[in-house]
Amino acid sequence: MEVLTGIQQVRCASWHYFFLAIATYYASVLLFALRWKYVLKGTGVDVPLGELFKANLAGLFMNNITPMSRGGGELLRMLWVSKLRGVPMGISAVTIIYERILESIPVMAMVAVGFLYFTTSEALVLMPLMVGLALIWMKWERFIELTLRVFRVDLSKEERERIVALRKCSNVNLVGIGASSLVWILDVLRLKLITLAFGLNVSLPILVFVSVVNLILGIAAFTPGGIGVVEGGLVGTLTYFGLPPTLAVSVVVLERFISYVLGSLSGLMVLLTSGGREVWRALKSR
């Protein structure tokens, strides 16, 4: 009954806020593509932004049908630029890993803000992550060698040198961290717009915390795309902060419609219309 009431609330939402929330979602995907483009350029590889945008959409679809959020999307992105654009698999793999390293900086800042606003002890979970990232940064060359072994890819000496030099590319690092920061700002903004659609004025620290919970649940959940786990966790978090259960369900329904349903449909359309079938066949063969 509560879910049905939440759906009825959705029908009464202010739709201009909803459409703005959709716009922030696709703006985030574009920023992901821009970040990847700069990281690839740092290795001497130039791939059109539109192609990377499509690869990211296809990756989102794959993420939403595989467990633990990014279970298959990253591999699909690697194969996309390798199969359709001739980028060596090792370079595509390392650039995606490097993206994640750059992304972790604003993510850790967001997690710290989200947790420290309410408590300090939980923020200690950041320490192992920070130590791990510091070790990767300091032992970058050895980390590259390990990555290339894992993906069983042989690169020329010149290609290896370009990958190792990524760490010293200040413009790549600035764009990568900046784009990642904007993505997470847009993520919080999307939640703000969805709550405004129901006439709710939820404070930004709470929305940052909810965004952190969304991120953690999406990564940790073993169901495809976090189905069930993410929704239940977000509804529980919102009700904990005082939202009526029906409104909490309504906010989560709209958020998941954008990030899961629209994201999946967009990625599926890309796979069906933009050469993704070849990539899909290569992915299934692995």
UniProtKB/TrEMBL annotation:
PANTHER family xrefs: UPF0104 MEMBRANE PROTEIN MJ1595 (PTHR39087:SF2)
Identify this protein by name.
Answer: Putative integral membrane protein
Recall the taxonomic lineage recorded for the source organism. Answer: Archaea, Methanobacteriati, Methanobacteriota, Thermococci, Thermococcales
One GO cellular component this record assigns the protein to is: plasma membrane
Which source organism does the UniProt entry give? Thermococcus nautili
Family of the protein in this entry: Belongs to the UPF0104 family.
Q: How does it sit in the membrane?
A: Multi-pass membrane protein
Keyword entries, A-Z = Cell membrane, Membrane, Transmembrane, Transmembrane helix
InterPro entries, per the entry = L-PG_synthase/AglD
Instruction: Write down the Pfam families for this protein, in alphabetical order.
Output: LPG_synthase_TM
Where in the cell is the protein located?
Answer: Cell membrane
Q: Which residues cross the membrane?
A: 15-34, 124-144, 165-186, 198-222, 234-254, 260-280
